[in-house]
Amino acid sequence: MGSVVLLVQLLLLLATMAAICSSFTSALNASYYASTCPDAESIVQTTMERLHYNDPTLAPAIIRMLFHDCFVRGCDASITINPTPHSPSPERTAIPNHTLRGFDAIDAVKQALDSSCHGGTVVSCADTLVLMARESVTLLGGDRYSLALGRRDGVQSNAWEVDLPAPFARLDDVIASFAGKGFTADETVVLFGAHTVGGAHCSSFRYRLTNPDDGTMDEAFCSDLLDTCGVEDQTLDTDPATFFDPDTPFVVDNNYYKQLVGNRTLLQVDQEAATHPATKQYVAYYAASNDVFVQRFSEVMAKLSNVGVLEGDAGEVRKVCSRFNTG
Ligand code: HEM
């Protein structure tokens, strides 16, 4: 009997040691490029500052790009792959990605990195994108957060794997989908707060203006949106777009939650967060405190940057972000 207890204790000890070891074997670390590309972070910072100065709408687009990358196959830059005759339907061609912007900026930052890193291609596209998103948050007035680096780039990208929530998704489903990636309901509400910057095309919410199923939209807000959008569907090139937070569309602040509380938000799924029993307390909490939201947003963006990353020898480090090294 005594030897069985000893054996169980030994097994438990081994399991604990294995768990501790595995938590230390992550290949990601803050000084990953210290010898191969010591200036990587400052190169991303200065290039993003230049790009942002020329186009302030880029930073919100990059924050969105990170979400669309990390929620499909993890943060592996599978989103940046271009279609080719051999592989015509990468993630980028899936419907939720049709309005993504910022691919040229990723190429520009990657080129700046490659031309200064020792030995050319050193920094992965996945790391390039998480660093660009961190700069975007900072440039929009958010808190700067630390990132461990060393992500590898994916070698697969398929439109059929893109399962991002639609603007009219039920919040229960969205909470479940975010939980599947490791986010609590609180963190999900914090990530929704990204909609305090940038904007949306009318096609994402026009149906709410004439037939507000949810019956929640503020009347004056609805009437302004009708003026902007009209009632007719448009093609993407001609469809108007409008800011989520018209007061401060380029500032990471808690205005988005105030919009939610006042029934003045564009997307149906966002609006549902203000009344859903699993999320309404968080919406009220962040609507009441800008400082808490700004801090939480950076914490959860850092967490988003680590979803399902490829490490060690997995995947590859792409030379060009829009195509696999094998062509
Ligand atoms: C249920 C979840 C979500 C849905 C349904 C959703 C949907 C959308 C839609 C429809 C747009 C407008 C796209 C356009 O018309 O151009 C948009 C924009 C945006 N989304 Fe989300 N989103 C979600 C979650 C997130 C998350 C988690 C983030 C980041 C952490 C994010 C960041 C953004 C940003 C920054 C924009 C503005 C982009 C720009 O101005 O170019 N979204 N989202």
TrEMBL record:
Residues that bind substrate: P165
Cofactor field: Ca(2+); heme b
Record-linked InterPro entries: Haem_peroxidase, Haem_peroxidase_sf, Peroxidase_pln, Peroxidases_AS, Secretory_peroxidase
Annotated residues for binding of heme b: H195
Amino-acid positions noted as binding Ca(2+) 2 in the UniProt annotation, renumbered to this chain: T196, D245, T248, D253
Record-annotated site: Transition state stabilizer: R64
Pfam families for this protein: peroxidase
Residue ranges of domain Plant heme peroxidase family profile in the record: 27-325
Keyword check for Calcium: yes
CC per GO annotation: extracellular region
Subcellular location: Secreted
GO terms (BP aspect): hydrogen peroxide catabolic process; response to oxidative stress
Signal peptide region: 1-18
UniProt EC number: 1.11.1.7
Reaction catalyzed: 2 a phenolic donor + H2O2 = 2 a phenolic radical donor + 2 H2O
Intrachain S-S bonds: C37-C117, C70-C75, C125-C321, C202-C229
Name of protein: Peroxidase
Organism of derivation: Digitaria exilis
